[in-house]
Every structure is written in C-alpha cells, then in structure tokens.
Amino acid sequence: MAAALAGCSEIAFQELSDDLITPIDHINNVDHFIDNIGDAVLARSDGAAAYHLAVVVDDAAQDITHVVRGADLLSATPIHALLQHLLGYAKPIYHHHALIRDSNGKRLAKRDDAKAIAKFRSEGASPDDIRAMVGLPTRSNS
Question: What is the DSSP letter of 30?
C-alpha cells in the first residue's frame, strides 16, 4: 500500500460535526494510515464487495456530495477517504451525528429490530414526543 501512496502528503476528509464526543481522526499522512488504520476488508469470501468498497463506489456512482451517518461509522471514514483517493473519486463532505438511543441508552438500529418512527407515530407519539425521546429540543422549547 505504501507504494500506492508514494508522494501523497495528505489524504483527508471534511467533517461538519463539531459536537461529537469521539475525536475526529483525519488522515494527515500516509504513515498515519499505515500505523493506525491497518488492513481493511474490501471483498467478502463470496467475492461480493464488502462495506468499505461498496459505499465508496456507490457514493461516487451517485455523485454524492454529502454523507450523513451515525458517529459509530466515523472510524471507517479514513478508510473511505483513502479508497476515494486511490480510485480517483471526489470526496464527499461528512457529518457524523450522535447516535439515537432508547431510554436505556441502547442505540436504535434496524438490525436490533428497533421501532421505526412510523411505529411510534402509529402508537400516538407526536413529533415533539419523538424529538424529546432522542434528545432533541421540542418545537415548544426551541
């Protein structure tokens, strides 16, 4: 990999969030990548593209300019910035938001069968109820 990055002084991404608890870890140089990131899986054993390669190619194919995703994916972004550089793709601007959690502090996720907003709404929750549940100010408090 070092040979592929020869002459690169900076491979970075732009992060818009300034409210993350996790520090923003930009790639500032090749040594940072080699020393801190390690190897990334780009293909699964069945030959299909793994997450890192798939999102980078999909974003480029769709001309994505801004990526908004959970803070739990922040650590993957340097890998994506490197792949974008190596593949000659434009880099989108990123915003990693705080995770939305339930009343027990567990993050709401589809893979854990978390309720969708539509389910909360069908059970009678108002938009302000949902905003309060996820820690956002309600319209009456903003």
Answer: H
